Amino acid sequence: MTDTMKQFAVTRSGPLKEVMTLGEVPVPQPGPSEVRLKVGAVGINFADVLTVTGEYLTRTRYPYAPGMEFAGTIDALGEGVQGFKVGQLVACLAGKGGLAQYAVSPAAALVPVPETFSAAQAAAFPVSFFTAYHALKTLGRGEAGEWVLVQAAAGALGTSSIQLAKALGMNVVALASTEEKLRIARDLGADVTILQDDPDRIQKVKDATGGQGAALILEVVGGTRFEESLQMAANRGRIIVIGNASREDATMRPVELMKRNLTMTGLWLTSLMQDAAATQAAAQGLTPLIASGKVAPQVGPTYALADSAQAFQDILDRKTTGKVIVEPQR
Which residues, 6 or more positions from 159, have their beta carbon under 8 angstroms from its beta carbon? Predict the structure, then answer.
């Protein structure tokens, strides 16, 4: 092992390919209660893109090393770390630093993964599946037999949500931008698929759900489409706001919630992961489904570390399906 490694860094906001720079830095050393991973795969989320561009929920503090979700083998343990061993494949939700050949993380941020997982599958698992579980069950209170509407159905969260909803006995209406993406949704079990720009999309959702609308909507688009989510919801429906892929402002009159007794709830995984009981419940719900093969991370396109900025741009341009993966050891 050398004393230096390659790592991406961002020193200011701006266009992705201008501000993401690959450099040579010292290999980090784990401190107390930390571990060091030889990073095998980094799962790239839309939140990573927004963090680099300075548009995320929290202020980006530069300089910043991107990569909030990654996986690899533990190659060094800091003082006091228990429950993990050198050579073990783990996933990690450290929040930053993943776009590197080695990364240090608090042991508390590690997520054990099945031994059958590849590094790419491990990196594609935590954010998407924990978010999907909290949207469908923790906050969404979804029940078997209910209709759930999944937007951006072929993306990392969409593919996870479809699989999990079906495993929990729910019916799924999937929206996506192309026929190819709708095919992916159908292959994963979606009952009804509709192009997101279909001029009759609202009526088609209502027709698919017996004229009632969806009991649960996973809202990730925002902007002008947010009003459509209200129209596609059933009376007393629940709308879980998870993202704003349109990057546009949305407007809403609270009286619209009142008229039909709708519930709107925001979901941010970062704060939910600080709730130990909720995290444990989600893990307990997901573990048997993963073990049985009823749900599985959908690995999308993979990129070399040097091509990370292109991976970010492709997500922003909506050219990808599944979880985008960067492989730093390639």
Answer: 128, 153, 184, 185, 188, 298, 321, 322, 323
Written as six digits, the tokens of 54 are 């300075």
Question: DSSP per residue over 256-303, as a string?
Answer: HHHHTT-EEEE--HHHHTT-HHHHHHHHHHHHHHHHHTSS---EEEEE
Helix axes 225-232, 201-208, angle to 10 degrees: 30
Residue the block writes with tokens 């006091």: 80
Separation in Å, CA 212 to CA 173, 203, 243: 13, 10, 25
Q: What is the pTM of this model?
A: 0.93
Burial 117-145 (b: 16+ CB within 10 A, else e): bbbbbbbbbbbbbbbbbbbbbbbbebeee
Burial of 327: CB neighbours in 10 Å, binned 0-12, 13-18, 19+:
middle
* 240 token code pair: 């879980």
Cross-strand bridge partners of residue 322: 155
The tokens describing 109, both together, are: 């941020």
- Cβ–Cβ < 8 Å for 66, 53: no
Both tokens of 168, joined, read 């929990």
pLDDT of the chain, 330 residues: tens digit per residue = 679 999 999 999 889 999 999 999 999 999 999 999 999 999 999 999 999 988 888 888 889 899 999 999 999 999 999 999 999 999 999 999 999 999 999 999 998 898 899 999 999 999 999 999 999 999 999 999 999 999 999 999 999 999 999 999 999 999 999 999 999 999 999 999 999 999 999 999 999 999 999 999 999 998 988 999 999 999 999 999 998 888 888 888 889 899 999 999 999 999 998 899 999 999 999 999 999 999 999 999 999 999 999 999 999 999 999 999 999 999
Query: Smallest Cα–Cα separation from 300: which of 41, 7, 72, 111?
Result: 41
CB 8 within 8 A of CB 66: yes
Residue 178: strand, helix, or coil: coil
